[in-house]
Write a structure and sequence with these properties.
172 residues; 3 helices; alpha+beta; 15% helix
């Protein structure tokens, strides 16, 4: 499995907008981090994420409605195609993600697919801990999320770089 060496992620911090809590920890995007130019790019990403202790994996797209996860951090590895995803809620940022990119969302980060290629496929994964729940941006959910998000444990590893670099350094 081929990972670009000495890769540094792009970082974004999104503010709580009253419905989507986001997180004080930066949202990370690794551009062209994984060489997915093979016949089984999903397996390539799953192998990398699994080797770094991230599991509960799935393959699909990104929901076309605004949501977040208040109990877990999430990694999205793009296996095929490309998409324009708004991260951070309605006041967040639209970012183009493409094959080989990895987005790492700290708990509470809003996300919604705006558009995508027909062949778009991501592999989602989570560090050890609670199960993922889809949370919709309502005042009631926001109030609950403000209680749960600070309790979400920091991962011991970055799904791309492992025990060093990436979120291990940036989420201290």
């Amino acid at each position: 499995m081929s990972v670009t060496h000495d890769i540094t992620p792009l970082t974004f911090v999104f503010r709580d907008d009253g419905l989507v809590p986001n997180n004080r920890l930066p949202f990370l995007v690794y551009k062209r981090a994984i060489d997915v130019d093979n016949d089984h790019p999903e397996k390539t990403i799953e192998g990398l994420f699994g080797a770094h202790g991230w599991g509960e994996m799935w393959r699909n797209g990104v929901f076309d409605y605004l949501h977040y996860h208040a109990t877990v951090h999430e990694a999205l590895g793009v296996a095929r195609g490309r998409a324009r995803v708004r991260f951070g809620g309605d006041r967040g940022e639209e970012i183009e993600i493409a094959a080989g990119d990895v987005a790492i969302l700290p708990a509470g980060t809003g996300h919604q697919c705006i558009s995508h290629s027909r062949n778009f496929c991501v592999v989602g994964a989570y560090p050890p801990g609670p199960k993922m729940h889809v949370t919709l941006p309502t005042p009631e959910n926001h109030a609950k999320a403000l209680q749960t998000i600070p309790k979400v444990k920091l991962p011991n590893t970055d799904p791309v770089t492992g025990e060093r670099g990436g979120l291990v350094d940036l989420w201290k």
